[in-house]
Amino acid sequence: MSDPEWDLDPKFDFIEAHRIATGSRVSLDDIDTQMEGPFRGKDHGRAFTHQAVEDIRNLQYRMFTEAKQSLLIVLQAPDAAGKDGLIRKVLGQMNPQGCRTYPFKVPNSEELAHDFLWRIHACTPAAGKVSIFNRSHYEDVLVVRVENIVPKSVWKERFELINDFEKLLVHRGTRILKFYLHISHEEQLERFKKRLDDPTKHWKLNAGDYDARDKAAAYREAYEDVFEKCHSKDSPWHIIPADKKWYRDASVAAIVRQTLQEMDPQLPSIDADLDEIRRLYERESAELQANKK
Ligand code: ATP
Ligand code: MG
Prior knowledge:
GO molecular function: polyphosphate kinase activity
CATH topology: Rossmann fold
Largest sheet: 5 strands, parallel
Protein name: Polyphosphate kinase 2 (PPK2)
CATH class: Alpha Beta
Strand order of the largest sheet: 2-3-1-4-5
Helix content: 40-55%
CATH superfamily: P-loop containing nucleotide triphosphate hydrolases
Bound molecules: adenosine-5'-triphosphate, magnesium ion
Shape: globular
Keywords: Kinase, Transferase
Family: Belongs to the polyphosphate kinase 2 (PPK2) family. Class I subfamily.
Distance between the termini: 46 Å
Domain Polyphosphate kinase-2-related: 42-266
């Protein structure tokens, strides 16, 4: 499926490089944010992504027609780490008939009147579909914890509730891929500056983003707990080095493509009588030709 021109070191496995190991605690500070993987620079990475996106589209088409399996992609990240760019350039390139993005913001009063998974469950993918979560139920053990929105006795029970919820989705035939976009403190500030310098990005500016920067250590600890408690073979986390936007896009595209290849969606079997349909076509086209004369 891949174009040989962009073939990479065949030993480089994006899933192995970025999927976290089960049962060990991740230390985000020890993970490189600037990695370039097997690529010979930005242009090589971008060309690879282009091909991977094409392959993802074809595989998603098969999954849509098969209408059995589904895929849930969860994106979590600090502000300005590039969730929007990744969706625009990679994930949002799938056919919108079978793929939808759901951004999760501060819950409204109706959502708050239900359990924390109520609004999430409603957005999970039906058979044949892909859901992309821009933020997710993990906010309920991240921002909610760091900002003390609910007491510890409440949020600490949620890790297990999340695991049970995700097991339910897997049981129904959903593959889950969870991505954390990992940027450095320095790169984040640089991106905040670019937003300040660009009037078309001013709508993204938010004083609260600086507050979250002050709480970076608390967020880091909260994320590390998530990676420890809510990672499994069937619902894995990947930590994506995201200082280089092109590497972020290429590595996520590679992991999504490999996962869809493993899912191996099949075009549906044909009930229609093809010989009969061919006969009908030939009759119509002969009639059309005859009328032209
Ligand atoms: P950007 O990276 O462009 O800033 P964003 O995902 O931060 O995008 P915003 O509209 O800035 O989008 O912020 C959404 C906010 O909603 C985030 O601060 C997030 O923490 C908050 N949020 C999401 N889910 C919850 C939740 N369950 N409880 C409280 N806050 C939440
Ligand atoms: Mg924000």
